[in-house]
Design a protein that fits this description.
By secondary structure, this protein is α/β, with parallel strands linked by helices. The protein contains nine helices and ten strands. It has helices at about 40-50, 70-80, 95-105, 115-125, 140-155, 170-185, 200-205, 225-230, 235-245, and strands at about 5-15, 15-25, 30-35, 55-60, 65, 80-85, 160-165, 190-195, 210-215, 215-220. The strands form two sheets. Strands 6-7-8-3-9-10 form a six-stranded mixed beta sheet, sandwiched between helices. Strands 2-1-4-5 form a four-stranded antiparallel beta sheet, covered by helices on one side. Strand 4 and strand 5 (about 65) form a beta hairpin.
Amino acid sequence: MAYLRLENVEAAYGSVNVLNGIDLDVEKGEVVSLIGPSGSGKSTLLRVLVGLNKPLAGRVLLEGQPIDYGSRKSLRAARDHFAIVFQQYNLFQNMTVLKNVTIAPVKIKKWDARQVEKDAVALLEKVGLGDKIKSYPDELSGGQQQRVAIARALALRPDILLLDEVTSALDPELVTEVLDTIRLLSKEGRTMIIVSHEMAFVKEIADKVVFMDQGKIVESGSPEEVMDRPSTDRAREFMAKILRH
């Protein structure tokens, strides 16, 4: 049994279906990259996993145990295993970098404040921001703010890190510093599901690439299989357009 398994998952916004029968396995320590055109359901899949969009049908199993998204207790337990980072940093502007990273573990998880702060400092040093712990978000670049958001997610000690287009709001010159942080996490063996349009980066970092279109998984496999030798006309068309730019 896969570490994380999605079986025939469906989801909708209003009357519009955005996920149509998603089957996906993610192994522990695996980096899975979701690619595809805008509106194909990639971000919705991540939102379903953390309960921001409830699935209409199908099952999500974590270590073989189904998550009941209709149960607050089950959803709370599942959220202990996931953390998500969005393209917008969503930092608290009136709090220092250190406070942004520690507030959720202390206030929501009720973890020991001293240990949380110690861990937060170590995480900020890991993402290259050890000298910014007393700074406020408006004193940071976009890339630095996104790295704070990643550190904030990691402070919750998730088993699976979900990254939703975390570089798309950044100036091109700031993208590299965020990608370097994700590379570091990958080398540590962290389980991640990444939505990204950074194709060269996806090819470099992913163990598995999943190409989605119109709410369905069209094909999945190694980066070489999906990106270099796609087996479907739709994936070939997409990759040809992407690689032309």
